Amino acid sequence: MNTPFETLICAYFNHVEYNITDVPFGQTNTTKILEIDGHQYIMRIYNKYTKSIEGIELESEITTTLDNNVDMFEVPIFLRTLNNAKYIELEEGSLGAVTTFLQGAVPQIMSAEQAREFGRLVGGFSARVREFSVDNHIYRGTSFTKMYDIHPLATSQSIRSFLENPPFPISRKLLAFYRDMIEAVEGSGQTLEVLPHQFVHHDLLIYNLLAQNNKVTGVLDFDFISWDVAFMECTISLNHLIHESEGSFEMIESFLTGYSSERKHSSQEIEHLMLLTQIYYISVLHFYIGQHYAGITVEHNFIFILQQLERNIQWLHQNEYQLQTLLYEHLVH
Questions:
Q1: How much of the chain, in percent, has pLDDT values that exceed 90?
Q2: In terms of C-beta density within 10 A (0-12 exposed, 13-18 middle, 19 or more buried), how is residue 167 classed?
Q3: What CA–CA distance (Å, rounded) separates 128 from 74?
Q4: How deeply is 131 buried, as exposed, middle or buried, from its count of CB atoms within 10 A (0-12, 13-18, 19+)?
Q5: 0.90 exceeded by the pTM?
Q6: How confident is the model at residue 26 (pLDDT cuts 50, 70, 90)?
Q7: DSSP states along 24-54
Q8: Is 27 exposed, middle or buried (0-12, 13-18, 19+ CB in 10 A)?
Q9: Alpha carbon of residue 244 to chain centroid
Q10: pLDDT tens for each residue of 240-262
Q11: pLDDT at residue number 72
C-alpha cells in the first residue's frame, strides 16, 4: 500500500526514480523535498483541519497572479497533476499538492540594511496584493479578527477549557495575561470595519522568506492568506522585527524606511497598532490550541508566542510615543 507521499508522486509523475528529503520548516503541514532528474519540488500534505479545497484554490489563484505580474519576488507555483488538477484528495481526508522549489536561504536581520530590505519586501508585497480585485462571491479565507474561527477545534468553549486546565505547565501570571488580552480584544468593540481591507499573508516573518545576495527573492507559506485589515501585514512583521532586534529603534526605523518606499498608511490605521498586535498574537495562540486538540505537540511554540506577546505588549506601552512618531513620519500619506 502506497504512503500518502507515494500516492502524491504517482498523481504528478509517470514511473520515475525519485529521492525524498525532509525539510527544516513546515509546522502546520507535512512537507518534503522531492528530487527527480536533478529538479527539485516541494510536496505537501495539508493539515486536514486548516486547509480546505477553497483554501488551496485561493492560494493557487493568488500565487499564480503574483507570479505573472510581480518581478519583485518569486512565489511557489502549484504544479498540475497528470489529470490537470492543482491538488489531490487523499484517503484519510487531507489534501496534497506539489509546488515549484525556490532557491535561497532564510534572510537575516542583523543590520540596518537587512532590516530595510525586510521592510521593503513586506511593503512591496502588501502594495501588490492590494491590487487584487475581489467580489462578494470569492472565498476570502479567515480573517484574524475572527479569532474563534482560526482553527475548527479552537472554539470559545475549547479555549476556555484549555485555560482552566492547561495540558502543560503555564505560569499563573502568563495565563492571567492571556485572559486579559482576550478580554481587551473582545471589549474593543471591533472598530476595525472602517479600516481599509485587503488580502494579507499573515506570516511574513524571515522564516517564510528566501534571500540571495542579501536581497529577499522569495515569499513562501501562503497557508494563512485571507481578507483582513490591510495594516495587519505591517503590524505582524513589525512585531517580528521588534522581537528579533530586541526593540532596536535603529532597526525599526530602517524597517519603516524600506516599508514606506513601497506602501503608505493613514493615521487612522496606525492608531490601531496595539489592537491589531493583540489580535494577531491571540489568533496564533488560538491556532496552537486547535493544533493541540488535533493531537499535535504545541507546548514549545505556544509558550514561545505567549511570552513574545507579553514582551512586545510591554515594549509597545513603554515606547508608544517614540514608535508612533516614527510611524507617522514614515507611513502617513
A1: 87
A2: middle
A3: 13
A4: exposed
A5: yes
A6: low
A7: S--SSSEEEEEEETTEEEEEEEPPTTT--HH
A8: middle
A9: 16
A10: 999 999 999 999 999 999 999 99
A11: 95
Q: Kindly state the greatest CA–CA separation across the chain.
A: 63
Asked whether the CA dihedral 218, 224, 228, 234 is positive or negative, the reply is negative
Give whole-number Cα distances, 72 to 1, 217, 232, in Å: 44, 7, 21
Is residue 188 pLDDT above 90, yes or no? no
Residue 292, pLDDT score = 96
Q: pLDDT tier at 112 (50, 70, 90 boundaries)? A: very high
Cα separation, 263 vs 333, in Å, equals 9
Cβ proximity of 303 and 170 under 8 Å? yes
When the pLDDT of each residue in the chain is averaged and rounded to a whole number, the result is 94
Give the cell for residue 177.
495575561
> What single string gives the DSSP state of each residue in 85-103?
-S-EE-TTS-EEEEEE---
Residue 227 bridge partners (DSSP): 199
Residues 278-301: b if buried by 16+ CB within 10 A, e if exposed: bbbbbbbbbbbbbbbbbeeebeeb
C-alpha cell at 229: 485589515
Residue pair 120/107 in contact by the 8 Å Cβ criterion: no
Q: At what angle do helices 112-129 and 53-69 cross, to 10 degrees?
A: 110
Domains annotated on the chain, with CATH: 4-100 (3.30.200.20), 112-331 (3.90.1200.10)
* DSSP bridge pairs for 219: 209
Share of the chain above pLDDT 70, in %: 97
Query: 3-state SS of the chain: helix, strand, coil percent to 5?
Result: 45, 15, 40
R_g over Cα of the chain? 20
Helix (H, G, I), strand (E, B) or coil at 19: strand
Measured CA to CA, the distance from residue 132 to residue 238 in angstroms comes to 23
Alpha-carbon distance 86 to 319, whole Å?
47
